[in-house]
Amino acid sequence: MNLLLDIGNTRLKWATEDQGQIDESHACDYRQPGCLASLERAWRGISVSRNLAIASVSEKQVLDSLIQLGQTLWPQCRLLIPQASAAAFGVTNAYQQPEKLGIDRWLAMIAAHNLYPGNVCVVDCGTAVTLDVVRADGRHLGGLICPGLNVMKQALVSNTADLMFTQRSYDTELGSATDVAIANGVCAAVIGLIEHTLSKLDADYRLVLTGGDAAYLVDLLRVSVSYDRDLVLKGLSIFCRGDANL
Ligand SMILES: Nc1ncnc2c1ncn2[C@@H]1O[C@H](COP(=O)(O)OP(=O)(O)OP(=O)(O)O)[C@@H](O)[C@H]1O
Ligand SMILES: CC(C)(CO)[C@@H](O)C(=O)NCCC(=O)O
Ligand SMILES: [K+]
């Protein structure tokens, strides 16, 4: 059994995996007090006999505390912490400094390239929104990074005197109240980023959406889209199984 951890800037997602089969994934806000204790309770009944595989784009301290917990619970497990590289599992990285690419982006691209043959445009709608374009032959053409929906809303509140937002649903229609105008404004910004980028590409690309806010966006896009909740965990699973040079 492997344990897969995807530590973003807001949430930690985890799932157990055996021979490529990922069980139901779980998510928690690891900045909340008590999160580590509840993870420990959830993990006590699990036996990680092979890899503890971790992708983290958070602070080192968060990663270190989870490594420590894992190694206490399963002293025999192997720690697998993939890094972005120039090429792995058929994908070649467009970055001039490949190791600077976020590991969550790299894993999502590797999973998408291996699970959805053909040209893919991978969009991860998390704390940040990232978009990466990978050709059918595995060549990464590059990507875009912009603030996620929550970060955009918070940025508005932090930089203005009169703006406030509420937790309301997203749409791209024009709003007639401040909270609607903000929710739909930030949503339209992300929808626009995706549709604009796809329309500029030289060929057809399958759009694959992942991340905590992806489910809000799938129905609002005017292009066809595949929603894959666990793309980063699936990338970790590929790393657990295989030889990156293949
Ligand atoms: N139960 C939930 N608790 C918190 N956020 C949620 C929940 N469900 C959906 N979300 C949304 O998910 C978003 C975070 O997405 P996700 O977990 O993919 O980000 P992340 O991986 O931590 O970020 P990043 O990888 O960009 O650093 C939040 O902005 C929030 O809007
Ligand atoms: C962009 C985020 C924050 C998205 O999680 C992460 O992938 C990251 O920290 N990336 C490093 C910078 C880069 O990918 O260019
Ligand atoms: K992420």
UniProtKB/TrEMBL annotation:
The keyword Transmembrane helix is assigned to this record: no
Cofactor(s) listed: NH4(+); K(+)
Family: Belongs to the type III pantothenate kinase family.
Protein name according to UniProt: Type III pantothenate kinase
Alphabetized UniProt keyword annotations: ATP-binding, Coenzyme A biosynthesis, Cytoplasm, Kinase, Metal-binding, Nucleotide-binding, Potassium, Transferase
PANTHER family noted in UniProt: TYPE III PANTOTHENATE KINASE
Annotated coiled-coil segments of the chain: none
CC per GO annotation: cytoplasm
UniProt EC number: 2.7.1.33
UniProt function note: Catalyzes the phosphorylation of pantothenate (Pan), the first step in CoA biosynthesis.
Binding site for ATP: 6-13, 127
Pathway noted in the entry: Cofactor biosynthesis; coenzyme A biosynthesis; CoA from (R)-pantothenate: step 1/5
Superkingdom: Bacteria
Catalytic activity: (R)-pantothenate + ATP = (R)-4'-phosphopantothenate + ADP + H(+)
Residue positions binding substrate: 95, 102-105, 178
GO MF annotation, one: pantothenate kinase activity
GO BP, one annotated term: coenzyme A biosynthetic process
HAMAP family from the UniProt entry: Pantothen_kinase_3
Keyword Kinase: yes
